[in-house]
């Protein structure tokens, strides 16, 4: 019977009316329903706008995406001809559901907008906040979407008629306000705003995105910045904002030749920029001038992206060394790379630690550092740091032995700070305000830049906790396709023919010419223990073509120390080094050096461009209770 | 309520609570009423009254809310109450109310469509007038009203092909563009796709007007504008190319933006563009390097993009980067990266094979497996790298554990065994462990590979081939493997030459690789799909997702069938049904809700379109017929009891164009003819023919089955 029926079916070719893909350009934004889930997949908010979205859609998303075992495959999921678009905010899932062939970018943008609106109303999007604001969220959902179509979603406009307390009754005046607001030509600003003091604040927020290779080369860097304004101005003010955009400066520079020379360096090339709705785009296109009538309160005036000539305010040089299976030594050096007269503030460096960390001992010269077990990271905070300074932290991480085969993913170190300049080089040249009717009094006139200094915070992302791969990995073997352009060999020997232990950490830093852009090319650390008296070869590999622009190599050996297993060795500032000429194939020259001799000058003379620096141990008392000496830099304890 | 509980019992109280001045409370009640109205249609009418009062409230916020709530009530009969407030709403002086009213029209028409029969005669609110009103509202001064009008018209006129964009409307919309918010702009850009400019000048005027939107702050507007440009300029390839150059910047910044999902969408579109213009983003390849914190799906997309934009200058860096991903902790990502390298290897064979060989040294299970699989494909596609591959292979066999990897390795050993000195010995290990081998596919591969190798190196393989064949024929559980073994055994009996003829197929097919690479799609091939889900899902998956419809329907019906598992039907009938001509163009809609009264009314008002009689003998089995008819989407409205004289049944069905088929079955005496009369509410002779043939097929199927049934009923009666 069943077979018969299927046959029947096939012979009638029962088709529901369907839109043919490709031929019909229906890509409207029609959202059939909106769901909000918590991290367990429980529905917090569900609002269905269209009949074609059934209740089972809620469960389908939970089962197929939230409770799915593997990681999320795609932010767009198609389950039984229904598309689910989801966005995650902390541990809350927001999903928009539709059966139409919609415009994906639009749906995501709408979800972001919805998040923004919710954040503007009740702060962070968290389960608790959502539960506390049920009513408000349903009100909002009703207002910003109707029949699945986005309506007015400007927070400013919404706030006039959705207040958290609820409107009891409205006066005539208020009513007309809504009408004029909603019908007015300028959707983002209502008329008749009055302030006793007219103020305008401006913030430039930039975030630096840096991608470094495991070898420490800067692969790509870009700054994405935002200009955020807070306006408390009466009436309908007309503002004009000017910055050191290259195109504008060049245009103006044509008139006066002097200015071109002066400002040529200071202008920046903006790759692309986008503006708030209020900016007159036509004027920007023709004159490159940014003029606008600002909305009331806080808003984002523009977003921009630059990729050229980015000043990296800090350099982070991380060193990781695995000591056996249960111990990890981490050392991070940060260097400020701006004018000494400037101060960076609120520096926070976050150094991730493995999941099986049992304890951490941290020593830092400056600021405070703490291991936060819940976040699996060492958080190092420095209040203030002047330019061209250097600061370092060293930590000893004890690990629990685990059977877990999974390797630690080595997440990147992240860094947050505020500096009084913009890494992109953006400068605000002027900000003018005209109000034709009110004519602000003199003392009211905008006090930029005196009143609000630009603030920029930047985040380094993906500064690798190098080496991302261990050097033992065969991937890093010479002759493996990597051009080994320079190789440095350390060869240590002890005259007493006793087993020696050397803690040497070598850092090769390139200082590339004028730009002063430098990065860690390579780190290497190893212990001499296994090799015993015969010495140890540390092979540093510098790969890639970036070396072409290299002017000078600086090899730093902090804390070179030899000790016999029995009794401590005096501090030895001897060293060895160095082979290889730049831009030639790998030639590992080995130098056999006796302790105590100082061959450095001669070697360095032989190889121009290579400079060797040896930093001795800096002994310091560990604490009052424990009189043992410990090295500040490498954390080595001196035995008494 | 969010949890789906039924709280409709509280309805009267809630309606009362809605009649207070507090707006927030009104909103909550409105939300409740909307959700519960379909469950309690009678009680919902209570709410309508107070809502109508609210529609005349002095505050526009309340008016808009009431109107919206009323339009959202999904219950039959509401239209009657709706018209007047809607007409007022469309002319309201507050734009807030107008917005709600415009979409309200769409909601009402949708509701009407759902129960069209109900309103068949009583459509008081003339469609034409409504449409005209909406077209005139396109000139409204509020931008959201304008966009809502477009949306509403589109829904109302869906059957006629959607809203018509003529020259005045198009130009009006173009002028209003700057006032719209991003949603509106994107929507209008989509609607403008329908407009075909009359002349070249007009076309370029439009393009100039819209130029600014290619650099809009909202990525979706950028994409919508790009699509419009690509579609409008379909005859000007140079304009298209220029547009793609111009959106490069915005697309790149979307790709590097912090919002993951947008970034994903942008990457999908970048891939689409690259398919036509390889090398379009080549100079920006570093933008597509993955960073640590990105989610898995973005990394995968980026790797695919990287594969596509490789050229002579950047190949070194790209490979370097991909190599880094190969050692990633995530197995999936690592394997993805390896396959990406293998993909590049089709063009830059030497470097890639070097890298892949190096990866083998890591002795990681998943890496080795993926590399060997990549090698197999490479050996097939690029014969020039076979030697390098063969040199790299020894030593892999210990690390590979999974089926896919093993199969690939065995294939390589079998096919290129003469170049790998220890190939027979590796295979020998496999032969020895064949009993503990869990995957039948591996055993199958092993058989073929060993036989191939035997042809190349008979002395070393003869013994183990014998052992393997013996095992596979005597002990093997899997039938496919055993059959294959028997086949090879007999083939060997026919002589080595015969085996050679069968097994020595070509060892590579370089043309395959080239074909895949060189297919450069023209821009016009995907311009219409740009900025839709087809691009995000990928064309194949999207086609699959949209093509699922018929199979879904049949699944639904299977469930019905399972409810009546004892429905009798013999084999012979199936043949008959199968032979029956295809009813082709007719498609009936399932679940037409038609009550008995409506049926009667319509039945009486229509003339009979067709009458026929079928031979019939024996009693009727009402349940069975009903089930069978339901499968083909013919509803039974009423039916006499089995055995009644005369026996009657009334059936209804509706096709996708809204044409209604009403049918009467009449059986005067038990062994006479079945009279069938069909009525139709629209004159469509072709549809009628198809419907009748469908009906006949079902009924005749029962007819032939009757003798058996009679016996069955008789015995039942005796008991």
Automatic annotation (TrEMBL), chain A:
Residues 197-461 form the MHD domain. InterPro entries: Adaptor_comp_med_subunit, AP2_Mu_C_sf, AP2_Mu_N, AP_mu_sigma_su, Clathrin_mu, Clathrin_mu_CS, Longin-like_dom_sf, MHD. It is a peripheral membrane protein. Its main location: membrane. One of its GO terms (cellular component) is plasma membrane. It is found in: Cell membrane; Membrane, Coated pit. One of its GO terms (biological process) is endocytosis. It comes from the Eukaryota. One of its GO terms (molecular function) is lipid binding. It holds the Pfam family Adap_comp_sub. The keyword Transport applies. Keywords: Cell membrane, Coated pit, Endocytosis, Lipid-binding, Membrane, Protein transport, Transport. The keyword Protein transport applies. Belongs to the adaptor complexes medium subunit family. This is MHD domain-containing protein. It comes from Lamprotornis superbus.
Automatic annotation (TrEMBL), chain B:
GO terms for molecular function: clathrin binding. The keyword Membrane applies. One of its GO terms (cellular component) is clathrin adaptor complex. Keywords: Golgi apparatus, Membrane, Protein transport, Transport. InterPro entries: AP_beta, AP_complex_bsu_1_2_4, ARM-like, ARM-type_fold, B-adaptin_app_sub_C, Clathrin/coatomer_adapt-like_N, TBP_dom_sf. It comes from the Eukaryota. Residues 588-700 form the Beta-adaptin appendage C-terminal subdomain domain. GO terms for biological process: intracellular protein transport; protein targeting; vesicle-mediated transport. Coiled coil: none annotated. It is found in: Golgi apparatus, trans-Golgi network membrane. It is a peripheral membrane protein. Belongs to the adaptor complexes large subunit family. Component of the adaptor protein complex 4 (AP-4). Adaptor protein complexes are vesicle coat components involved both in vesicle formation and cargo selection. They control the vesicular transport of proteins in different trafficking pathways. AP-4 forms a non clathrin-associated coat on vesicles departing the trans-Golgi network (TGN) and may be involved in the targeting of proteins from the trans-Golgi network (TGN) to the endosomal-lysosomal system. Adaptor protein complex 4 (AP-4) is a heterotetramer composed of two large adaptins (epsilon-type subunit AP4E1 and beta-type subunit AP4B1), a medium adaptin (mu-type subunit AP4M1) and a small adaptin (sigma-type AP4S1). Interacts with TEPSIN; this interaction requires the presence of a functional AP-4 complex. Interacts with GRIA2; probably indirect it mediates the somatodendritic localization of GRIA2 in neurons. This is AP-4 complex subunit beta-1. It comes from Lamprotornis superbus.
